[in-house]
Each structure stands twice: as C-alpha cells, then as structure tokens.
Amino acid sequence: MREGGDKKDISNRLCGVSVRDMARAVIVVDMIDDFVYGKFGSERARSVVPCIKKLIESARKKGEPVIYLRDAHKRGDKELGVWGEHAMKGTKGSEIIPELAPQKGDHILEKQTYSSFFGTGLDDILKRHGVEEVVIVGVTTDICVRHTAADAFFKGFDVIIPTDCVQTISDDSQDRALEEMKKLYNAKVVGLDKVIS
Ligand SMILES: [Zn+2]
Predict the structure, then answer these.
(1) For residues 38 and 88, what is the distance between their CA atoms, to the nearest angstrom?
(2) How many Å lie between the centroid of ligand 1 and the Cα of residue 18?
C-alpha cells in the first residue's frame, strides 16, 4: 500500500472500485545482454540486477504492471550512427538477461531509440492499466532512463527513480542524471526501500 493518495482514494471509494494497486507500473529499461554482459556491459550495470529483481517481484505480488523495454535495433536506425551496432533485433545482445526473465502477464516492448515511449505503445499500455505513477529502473541512468523519465513527465505521469536500481558509466554521470531528473521532471529520487515499503 502506498502513502499519500488521498484524492484518488476518495474517487475510488465513490466509484466503488479500487484501482489503487494498479496506479503504479514498473518500467525496466534495457536490462539486456549487450548492456549488462555484452558490448556495453559493465560491473556497474550488473550491480543493479538484485535490486531490480526485488522490485519487480514486489510489483508482481501487488498486481502492478511490469513492463520491459529493450533495444531491438534495425539497420538504418539513427542511433547506430552514434554508438555503432548494438542490441540488434533478433540477436542475443537484445535479449533480456535471464536473471530478470519476464513472467506471464509482464509486457515486453521493443524500442529503436533512447525513450521507452517513442513508437513503442507504452503510453497506451499505461493508460489501459490506469497508471499514474511510473517507477523507472535499468540502464543507463543518463541516457535511456533519463529520456524515458522526460517523456513520462511530458505525458503527465509521476516519476520515481530508485537510485539503487539505475546505473551508468561513472559516479559523476549517475549523480548528474539523478539531479537533473529531480530538478526538471520532479522525479522522486529515493532508495528502493522507500519504493516498496
Ligand atoms: Zn540503442
């Protein structure tokens, strides 16, 4: 149960239906082979796996949607001109790592650039579930997590970033991205314990 949803609780009571447990969704960004073990893999990316596992297990128990976004690039994607080939559609590099394997009822969406909302149908899924608040986790904090947080904010969702479930290439990049998401998108930047309590 979450704190602080007074207005929503009242409207839920008036409707006679509780949507409270469905108001939040977890978005898992790019926890795929190329970003954890493969081409851009790192110890820093691997360090968030247990934390994300704990979060998604808790979300599934509460009936909150768990939505995976993964890079699945096609030749000609603009982004390949910046980073070179990575996470190509149909290759191992684009597969979600086995430790965080999706389960029945989870959503898996493919993306071709940084934002999880761009051309993926994510917005429709969130609306269908009545989601108002998104918890964004994965890699990297300053690129795909950040662009996803920006679009979530633009589309009117509240944003939560559990600091121990996101990572990037350096402490400096991590701190700057967290600070900017807090400042620009009013993101709640907190430890996972605050998110699942
Ligand atoms: Zn990419």
Answers:
(1) 12
(2) 38
Is CATH 3.40.50.850 the right assignment for the domain spanning 22-196?
yes
Reply yes or no on whether the pLDDT at 157 is more than 90.
Answer: yes
pLDDT value at position 18?
Answer: 42
pLDDT tens-digit series, residues 30-44: 999 999 999 999 999
Q: Which residues surround ligand 1, an ion (CB under 5 A)?
A: 71, 79
pTM above 0.85, yes or no: yes
pLDDT, position 197? 79
Mean pLDDT on 4-15: 45
Beta-bridge partners for 185: none
Domain spans of the chain, in order of start = 22-196
Residue 6 has pLDDT above 90, yes or no: no
Ligand 1 center from residue 86 Cα (angstroms): 6
Q: Which two tokens stand for residue 31?
A: 């926890």
Neighbouring-strand partners of residue 88: 73
Distance between CA atoms of residues 58 and 65, nearest Å: 11
Task: Using the mean position of ligand 1's atoms as its centre, give its distance from the Cα of residue 127 in Å.
Answer: 25
